[in-house]
Write a structure and sequence with these properties.
- The chain has one domain (3-433).
- The chain has helices spanning 3-12, 20-40, 55-58, 66-69, 72-93, 97-109, 112-128, 133-144, 147-158, 160-170, 172-190, 201-217, 224-244, 267-282, 284-290, 294-304, 307-327, 340-344, 346-364, 381-401, 413-426; strands spanning 41-46, 49-54, 370-372, 431-433.
- The chain is mostly helical and 440 residues long.
- Helices cover 68% and strands 4% of the residues.
- The strands form two sheets. A two-stranded antiparallel sheet has the order 1-2. Strands 3-4 form a two-stranded antiparallel ribbon.
Length: 440
């Protein structure tokens, strides 16, 4: 049975009560991340060496595209919606927190482990072969940097019982309290009084955006007028913050820039999340009618069935493609970035990256079809929480520093070890086949 046939089969079995639009937005947001990362990379051979420049630096006018391509707020919003549904279902079924968390972490963590193992092996072999440590570090940082998102998201999932309870008790005040905390952090960080405080907004900003998913789930965005009112609020906030505040116009980090809206996140990203949430919620009725069609929904099921594989491997696919081009004498890498010829060749390079990504999806995509086996032993809450924190720490270390280490055997074993140790504590290493594509 072909992958498309399996997706069609799963699509036919989807309950009528399912909000297909949420799954669709999850798929589209990840595809946008893949496309955006591939587009923003501007590789070029300079004096016989490969330099992977950033398009936002080479062509500053492209920074306006980040207002569309920065879709991480969308993923956190739909994550909040889906996590609320999942937690409510588990609570009604009498499923405990640790079992629920292990199930959610299985979907997120299992597909990451092959990637970490791959880069550990590649780093060791490259070191033995005498590859320049700088190339190992830069290559692995560029391949693993997107793991920051998962590092934050696994914490958001672990905190769902707390954030959902806060939402049920305080409603929108639970969102505005996080927004106020984020504003205070921005003031401390951007005023120079406490620059390191900005890192706290990885939690405050993204959990606040996650709360917007609860707002959507509970009908707070129902109706075009209400949804567009939120969109207008977000638009005004973005405009004011960017034009009158100390915030840059780019919605993603620009290498070399003195300020950033995403590393760490600022109030501008929260405002962008409000804007995106309102606009997308306004389109929900029309989108759900369209997604009742078998083909659009089957395509959504197909992408969601491999969504983690696409996300965690897309940058590695790009780096490996560039590495092969370098080994072949720099073929295709002599074109000056952002010029007319460079833009004309982008579709070709996108196709090359897609081929490498497909090559990775074949052997590694099956890990996304694994889940915790039903006969898995009961999991203590402390183990579930500690394992989640360990995975978060390991992913953060890899996203920040890559795989290279000056210590033997030349790779960051503590970071990789935290990922696997956390997975072991959570209990997701005992996994079984799920059996094909599925909506989410």
């Amino acid at each position: 049975m072909s992958t498309w046939t399996r997706a069609l089969d799963v699509a036919k079995k989807t309950p009528a009560s399912r909000n297909r639009y949420v799954d669709f937005l999850r798929a589209v947001s990840i595809l946008a991340v893949v496309f955006g990362h591939w587009l923003m990379a501007a590789p070029e051979m300079v004096d016989g060496e490969l330099q992977v420049q950033h398009l936002l630096v080479v062509a500053p006018w492209t920074q306006v595209a980040t207002w569309v391509l920065q879709v991480m707020p969308v993923f956190f919003v739909v994550g909040g919606y889906a996590n609320a549904v999942s937690w409510e279902s588990a609570s009604q079924a009498g499923t405990g927190y640790s079992a629920w968390l292990r199930s959610r972490m299985g979907r997120l963590v299992i597909p990451i482990l092959p990637l970490v193992a791959f880069w550990v092996g590649l780093g060791v072999v490259a070191g033995w072969l005498g590859v320049d440590p700088y190339l190992i570090r830069v290559g692995s940082v560029n391949a693993l940097i997107a793991l920051w998102f998962l590092a934050v998201y696994v914490l958001a999932v672990a905190l769902v019982p707390v954030t959902r309870a806060a939402w049920r008790r305080f409603g929108l005040w639970s969102f505005w309290a996080l927004a106020a905390a984020a504003a205070l952090v921005d003031w401390a960080a951007l005023s120079g009084s406490l620059p390191e405080a900005g890192w706290a907004n990885y939690l405050f900003i993204w959990i606040a955006v996650h709360q917007l998913g609860y707002l959507w789930r509970d009908g707070g965005l129902a109706g075009t007028r209400r949804a567009l009112s939120w969109a207008a609020l977000g638009a005004v906030a973005v405009a004011v913050l960017v034009n009158l505040g100390p915030y840059p116009a780019s919605m993603v980090d620009v290498p070399g820039s003195e300020a950033s809206n995403s590393a760490p996140p600022t109030l501008v990203l929260l405002a962008l999340g409000i804007l995106q949430t309102g606009l997308l919620a306004a389109l929900e009725p029309v989108a759900n009618r369209w997604l009742r069609g078998p083909r659009p929904w089957a395509a959504t099921v197909l992408v969601n069935g491999m969504i983690m594989t696409l996300f965690v491997w897309h940058l590695s696919a790009m780096i490996l493609a560039l590495g092969l081009a370098l080994l072949l004498g720099g073929v295709g890498l002599s074109i000056e970035p952002a010029g007319a010829i460079w833009w004309l060749t982008r579709p070709l390079w996108m196709a090359v990256y897609a081929v490498f990504l497909a090559a990775a999806a074949v052997p590694f995509g099956r890990f996304e079809r694994l889940s915790v086996r039903p006969d898995a032993r009961p999991l203590p809450t402390w183990a579930a929480v500690l394992g989640t924190v360990a995975v978060c720490a390991g992913l953060g270390m890899l996203a920040y520093g890559g795989i290279w280490s000056e210590w033997w055997p030349g790779v960051n074993l503590p970071a990789a070890g935290l990922c696997f140790a956390g997975a072991a504590l959570i209990g997701v290493l005992r996994a079984g086949e799920k059996g094909g594509a599925r909506p989410s």
